[in-house]
Amino acid sequence: MKKNAVVETPWQKVKWWFNFLTTILMNSVIVVLIIIGIMLAFYLVDLIINDAKGVTKPPLYGAYVIVSPSMEPVIHVQDAIVIHRDKEIKIGDVCTYLSKDPRWYGIKITHRIIAIDVDENGKKVYIFKGDANNVQDTLPVYEDQIFGKVIMRIPKIGFIQYFLSQAYGWIIAIVVPCVGLITFDVIKIVKTARMKKRIKRGVKDEE
After folding, report:
1. Which pTM does this prediction carry?
2. Cβ atoms within 10 A of the Cβ of 154, count?
3. What is the DSSP letter of 172?
4. End-to-end CA distance of the chain
5. Is the sign of the CA dihedral 181, 182, 183, 187 positive or negative?
6. Could you say which DSSP state residue 6 is in?
7. Rounded Cα gap, residues 5 and 207, in angstroms
8. Alpha-carbon distance 17 to 163, whole Å?
9. Does the domain at residues 58-155 carry the CATH identifier 3.40.50.720?
């Protein structure tokens, strides 16, 4: 055993793990906020440009939480998806569109394109199907119904969203770690101040 080895007390270990987990949580929140901020900036710039041109388009980027298992096992319930408005949509792409099916009217659905066809008026239509579904979606989808193509999946972020939307979740995830960090800092300051006083007293005693 090394002579200068420092033996950590149980309290120090708990403190270290608490700081470690809190740092990860806070950094994760910061990263998410940065990503949201970047997406919002792109969204606003795109909105201003389209407004100046008098063009109505879906947002450049969008994010949704999946609540249906129709895209299992590629996308799970409570996963979050990020979509991008893309002109180059092809067969095999997973996209989010606005349903006009009377059963699901006005609901945003995220399914895969399995075919591209043309209707009787010569307009391009897209045929969608959920990976876990046995049949294709009832109605064909027109281009102006499509919000965008899925470019990113964030696993189980919906649980975090739900957790943070509750009062107890906000307290546990944000308030408690902040109070804990402040408490640890106050304790550290108090200990440092006491140590300085002891050093000063020792110097005075030697004099």
Report:
1. 0.62
2. 15
3. I
4. 38
5. positive
6. P
7. 33
8. 22
9. no
* Residue 49, both tokens: 């440009």
Least Cα distance to 112 among 80, 75, 82, 84 occurs for 75
User: Which pair of structure tokens corresponds to residue 169?
Assistant: 């979740």
Q: Sign of the CA dihedral 195, 197, 198, 204? A: positive
Q: What is the pLDDT of residues 3-62, one digit of tens each?
A: 455 556 776 677 777 777 777 767 776 777 787 777 777 777 877 877 777 767 777 888
Q: Whose CA is closest to 110, among 124, 99, 123, 125? A: 99
Residue with tokens 């569109």: 97
Q: Are 61 and 37 in contact (CB under 8 A)?
A: no
Specify whether the CB–CB gap between 144 and 124 falls below 8 A: no
Q: How far apart are CA 194 and CA 47, in angstroms?
A: 58
CA distance 132 to 146: 20
Cis bond upstream, residue 10 (ω within 30): no
Structure-block tokens of residue 40: 């919002």
Give the domain ranges of the chain. Answer: 10-57, 58-155
> Tens of pLDDT along 110-157?
999 999 999 999 999 999 999 999 999 999 999 999 999 999 898 877
| CA–CA distance, 138 with 191 (Å, rounded to integer) | 69
Distance from C-alpha of 35 to C-alpha of 157, rounded to nearest angstrom:
14
Type of residue found at 89:
I
CB atoms within 10 A of CB 187: 11
